Fold this protein.
Amino acid sequence: MMKMMDEKEPRVGMRVTCDGHRGTVRYVGPVPPTTGVWLGVEWDDPERGKHDGSHEGVQFFTCRHRTGGSFVRPAKAQFGVDYVTAVKRRYEDEGEEMQVSSRTVVMVGFERVRNKEMMDQLTEVCLRRCEVSGPGPQNQIRDTTPHVESLDLSGNLLASWEVLAAITAQLESLRELQISHNRLSLSGDPSLLSPAFSCLTLLSLNSCALTWTQVLQCAPMWPQLEELYLSDNDITELTRPDALLRNLRVLDLSENPIRQETLLELAHLPWLEKLNLSSTGFSAVHFSDASAGDETAAFPALKTLSLDDNNISEWCVVNELEKLRSLVHLSCRRNPLLQKEKNPETARQIIIARLGRLTLLDMRKVESDERRGAELDYCKMFGSAWLRAGGVSDPEKLNTHFLSDHPRFLSLIHKYGAPDEGELREQKPFALKHQLLTVTFLCPEDAGRKPIEKKLPESMIVQKVKGLLHRQLKLPAVRLKLSYTCAKLAGREIEIDNDLKPLQFYSVQDGDSILVRWS
């Protein structure tokens, strides 16, 4: 069983665990008409509680949630162990199991330490859910694990930053600290605690019920911090971190209901390279300092942006992201915008075409061939709108609405050349008589093969065309490469590089020739 801290009387602010649930003591005293002492506990998980801290009309304490509180007898609560005791149990215990509250935790992936000399050499210590509540006897941490560089204290019973500082102050090599799933109060001047965190470069504070104001209040303690993880907190409104977090490179704000109009308060963090805004309700952004096609001064170093599981539904959001001068990695999975396209690959191609510097999209590398194909497809997809906007008569005086919707279109025209008007003809009705094309298949690298003429529906996807060719040409299981040409192209070939697109997408017309190559 976990050691009870009998030498200390229960007091308001202490952290406790009861039947595997953690909470904070908000009241100590009688609850009439019963006799004896009760603890009024606000649980981390409000579903564990029964009320808001009141009993029979009397408010004994308050909770953040109306069902977050309970009264428990002190004998049923446990108040944790000190750091050194937890380390010894965690790393010196002969068995493979450790009793934590009423649960059995199986220790996996760590070698047991058999003597003090080996413990002295530990550089990584994991005390996750080991119910650590304090440092223990003076200087014992420094004597026991002096070389720790990475410490995980997630899900423990730490009550305040002052208590945590009493632990970390003895770990002079500490660089990485995980204290997620704790509830830490701050009662004094945070700058006085900064020596205890002076070398810290990574801090994880996920699920700690923090507001952004509280984060900035604590930030003076972390002068060297480069990575800050704040997922699943109570962050709703951001304010500018003036003179704070100036070394920050990585910031995780996922799973916080952030007011998106406050996001630009982070725009001037000079070294921020990676920002996670997944599951924040993100739906729009506008960089007012830059017009379409220009670069914004906001987020000057931002390379990686995560926007998964949000409410993005308009392509103008993607256009705004193109203004970020350093953005090369983007993740935007499971957004309504992507559902507008029946084929997920089509949505991917449009994003690639709209974001010219992107090298990684949704954890998949953007190869040079994929970019070229996406940009060419994009030119065809919106080529008719470009023509209607005046693209042929004077490309430099395009309709401003079109340029706003497609800020990269002019640069793509300069890169690949203007699309031919015949290539961009309007889609015809889907009656079969309008869909059939007479196409000649040629094998330019095999002179012995005769041309094959076929009538195909223009809605036939490239993948099925390749299947037909396998059967007709009696080719082994090889990779086919298709392109097409016509009299208007004057010897120029157009690559057919997406198996899921119909022939109509590539503007293949009646009488055209499709060139077949294989490898």
In short: DSSP finds 13 helices and 26 strands in the chain.
